[in-house]
Every structure is written in C-alpha cells, then in structure tokens.
Design brief:
Multidrug-efflux Transporter Regulator, Chain: A, Domain 2, Methyltransferase, Methionine Synthase (B12-binding Domains), Chain A, domain 1
C-alpha cells in the first residue's frame, strides 16, 4: 500500500504535457517498446526523473523527423544516462584511448543529438580535463586526446549537399575551434548547410572569404579577448552580412552585434523555425 509519503519525480501526465503528446501515447511507448522510467516503480506509481525526460524528449525528436517509433525506441532503449557516458569519455581520454573516446561520443551524437551531447558530455568532460591540467600541466595530452575525439564525432554528422549561406569561423589567432565544429554539426542535423573555416582566420582571409562566398550570415568565434578580433568583426559587418559573435572573448563594447551565449541559442538564431530539438530537456 502507498506509504503516504510524496514520491519524487514527475507523473506520466506531467511528462506527457511537457512533451506535447498524450498520456496514452506515453504509456504505449512503455508497453510496446520498454521505455519505462530508469527508476523502478515506487508506491505503485511511475515517476520520471530528469534522465527519463531527456530520453523521452529524444524519442519525440526522432519520431518527428520520420523515424519509426520502434526504431527510435531501439536506439534509445538500454542507453545509459548521459552522465554515465560523460564519465566514461573522461576515463578514456585520461588513458589516451582515443578509439574508445571517439566511439562513445559518436554513439552519443547518434542517440542523443549534437546539442545534448555537447552540453551534457563534451563541455563537462572538457572542464574536468582542464581542471586536472591546471594541477598537472603535463597532462595536456589528455585534453588533446579528448578534443580530437570530439572533432571526429562532430565530423561524422552527415552534411547537407547544398550551397551554404552561413559562414562559421574563428577569430584571428583563435585556436579553440571545437564550438564551431559543434555548431556546424548541430545545424547539419537540422538540414542547414554551413561553411566552416575553422581556427585562426586572419582578417584579410576572412574578408576574402566573405567577398567570394557572399554569405547571408557570419558567425565569428572568440575564446580569448583580443583587440584584433573586434577589428575582424568590424570589417565583416561593414561588408553587409548579418554578424553573430560567439564565445567568451568578446568585450562588452561588442554588444552592438548579435551575441548568442550558448550553442542552443546560436542554433535557434540560425534556424528558420526552431523545433523541439532546440528546447531544453530538463524539468527543473
């Protein structure tokens, strides 16, 4: 019998409302495909935690893209929570096991999508490795192994074969190109083409690229503050395309240009009509 104590988590009705589906559809997924909450039933009632909501949101995303429910459930059923994947990725990077590290990330992107993999696996993994590097500068090899594996995973996302009117590049001297790679992959998931020029683009080369490709939108990434980055952004803006500046390196004075503060925001700003995949998956 129920103990009378409140059971933590969310009910099927609350989760169904959050996902925009009927409660009967949710219960059908449980019955047909085994997508039960990770936690066992408590007090005779299903309760859903954040990991359950992430998995069910991804189920909705995959079904909305045209995947059969059975196939989508097969992809997600038995998948470990993202926090477990993140821990395994860090362990593999510290062992310099780039094969395992890249494979874990490729599987995560396939199952959960680029945005969720970036926010829940890549960013916290980079933070963990960089924290260890501050204690022991010689472990920079771990960071390189992790970064290489992330790049491999992002490059595995199929790119649309059409003319791109979005240009993504790093500011002059900027070597941190992973966020640009992640954004390009996330846009590709949404069937949006983008040209990626990568790290450390000198201002003359950026101007030449904008002149030759005439993009509608340019996003310039900066991880560190540098006055030459503002010069490059000004040169691009003067040429007419919509300019987005991304990354923590931009000074407050650069706020006259659009400045997405996260991968999710950048995706939304570059996507004609935001979809369910652009929404947060937390119930917090």
């Amino acid at each position: 019998m129920p103990s009378g104590r409140e059971v933590p988590g969310w009910t099927a009705g609350q989760v169904a409302t959050r996902l925009g589906i009927t409660e009967s559809t949710l219960r059908s997924w449980h019955r047909r495909y085994g997508l039960e909450p990770y936690a066992a039933r408590q007090s005779g009632q299903r309760r859903y935690g954040p990991d359950d909501v992430v998995r069910l949101t991804r189920m909705c995303e995959l079904v909305n893209t045209g995947m059969r429910p059975a196939a989508a459930a097969g992809l997600l059923n038995g998948a470990a929570p993202l926090r477990n994947t993140q821990a395994a990725v860090v362990t593999a990077a510290r062992k310099l096991d780039t094969g395992t590290c890249a494979d874990l990330l490729i599987q995560s992107v396939h199952r959960w999508g680029v945005l969720r993999t970036w926010e829940r696996v890549c960013r916290p993994s980079l933070t963990a490795v960089e924290r260890a590097q501050r204690r022991d500068p010689d472990c920079v090899d771990n960071e390189h192994a992790l970064s290489w594996s992330m790049t491999v995973a992002m490059h595995r996302v199929h790119r649309p074969l059409r003319e791109a009117d979005i240009l993504l590049a790093c500011a002059p001297g900027e070597q941190h190109s992973l966020p640009v790679e992640a954004l390009a992959a996330a846009l590709a998931e949404r069937d949006i083409s983008a040209r990626v020029l990568g790290a450390a683009m000198p201002t003359p080369a950026l101007v030449r690229a904008v002149t030759s490709t005439t993009p509608r939108t340019v996003l310039l990434w900066s991880h560190r503050a540098d006055h030459t980055h503002h010069t490059a952004a000004t040169a691009i803006a003067d040429m007419g395309p919509r300019l987005l500046i991304a990354g923590p390196g931009w000074q407050p004075g650069a706020a006259t240009w659009e400045h997405p503060h996260s991968l999710a925001t950048a995706i939304t700003m570059l996507t004609p009509s935001p979809s369910l995949a652009d929404l947060s998956t937390d119930l917090e």
